[in-house]
Amino acid sequence: MTEQGWTLRLRRSTAGQVLVRASHRTGVPGAVVLVLLSAGLVVALAGFGFAVALEDVMEGDGVVGADPWVQRFLVRHRTSALNEVFRAITRLGSAGVILVLALGVILFLVWRHERMLALGVVLATGGTAILVALVKMLVDRSRPPPIDRLSGATGASFPSGHSAEAIAFYGAIAWIVVVLVRGRRLRTLACAGALGLGLLVGFSRAYLGVHWASDVVSGWLLGLAWLAATIGVCALVPTMLETSRDARDQPEPRVD
């Protein structure tokens, strides 16, 4: 089915009618309403999952109980080839690599006059880094035993910064492709690629023994929640600015 066909089908559905009514009442375009609702749902679900994991880590129960078992399983199934593969993959979530890639993407978007998308990349990557740093200071969880580590790591363990940054940054790239590219196949590939990279980077952290499994899952959830919030804000702000500009441009009523 073509993109126009999907759009027509959505408008005729019950959900589509709800979006149309919400758009008329708020003055916000239907597409923006859909983005805001979707982003809000993702923030709520991912945020709830992160809150549950955070509570379990702070109290030392719940999902934390599976961490030692997962760690032993991964250590037992290591091979020399997989070690090198995951050492390479984990670099894709490092601060240095993401910083360089993010700067390149931001410069490209500014050159294309897509300043709101460029701001979105800044918010997604920078905001995630700040959140991770704050939570690490709050929780201060110890990493897995050094004897199990195949890579160097410093600082607190919870949540995994690589996992959070990979989901947030590569997810932001997928969002940019969805906004700028018309082809549905390329959009789907971008979203699948971003998801795959985020999951692989996170898994590599547990495989290499520098994070517990719950650190990785929590990093994914935190990065996803912040990415969704960023997308929602960047979808709403242009509409608000346009509405404000239109209100200023309207002539004031004459008083006789």
User: How many individual domains?
Assistant: 1
Number of helices: 10
How would you state the average pLDDT, rounded?
85
Element-level helix/strand string: HHHHHHHHHH
Task: Please state roughly what percent of the residues sit in beta strands, choosing from under 5%, 5-15%, 15-25%, 25-35%, 35-45% or over 45%.
Answer: under 5%
Share of residues in helices: over 70%
Number of DSSP E strands: 0
Catalogue the unreliable spans.
Answer: 1-8, 13-20
Largest sheet: none
Pairing-aware structural class of the strands and helices? mainly alpha
**Could you say which overall geometry the principal axes of the C-alpha atoms support?**
globular
Query: Radius of gyration in whole Å, from Cα?
Result: 21 Å
Ends apart, CA distance between termini: 58 Å
Task: Describe the structure concisely.
This protein has helices at 3-12, 14-26, 30-59, 67-76, 80-91, 95-111, 115-139, 161-180, 184-207, 213-249. The protein is mostly helical and 256 residues long.
Description:
This protein is mainly alpha-helical. The chain has one domain (33-235). The protein is 77% helix and 0% strand. The protein has helices spanning 3-12, 14-26, 30-59, 67-76, 80-91, 95-111, 115-139, 161-180, 184-207, 213-249. Helix 3 (30-59) runs antiparallel to helix 10. The longest helix has 37 residues, at 213-249.
